């Protein structure tokens, strides 16, 4: 079953990658992960960001420097501790994420149109169950945002389980 799922997930991975490549040519994959974390945790500080991404503080800082220079990220003094810097997305970064999701959904809609309604519903039901089981199974993974289809709101499991941003899209919903 796992081998068949791995083979079948190739099309889904290809859709994710095609949407990412067509939308995010302005930022690298690592920078996109930063944007997604900051979207989910608006006001996050640099240390927490580095921890969420599983990288060195200096590497996260350099990524943020590039995103600030690209107009995707803003830094401001922390509200509680002025020595701490909080990170926020710019409108341009929000537009980039909206475009990414729109491109991905357009591609998925085209593919789903070629499926029977029963098959499409079974796929959705199975993927939702897979997502929940995976979240229960491994709460030790660091970060990947997950959004409900209805409102684009980040959601987390009750235990706070999250996924690593560098996991393949076939095992995460971003």
UniProtKB/TrEMBL annotation:
The lineage of its organism: Bacteria, Bacillati, Actinomycetota, Actinomycetes, Micromonosporales. GO terms for biological process: response to stress. InterPro entries: HTH_MarR-typ, MarR/SlyA-like, WH-like_DNA-bd_sf, WH_DNA-bd_sf. This is MarR family transcriptional regulator. One of its GO terms (molecular function) is DNA-binding transcription factor activity. Pfam families: MarR_2. Residues 143-174 are annotated as: Disordered. Residues 164-174 have a biased composition (Basic and acidic residues).
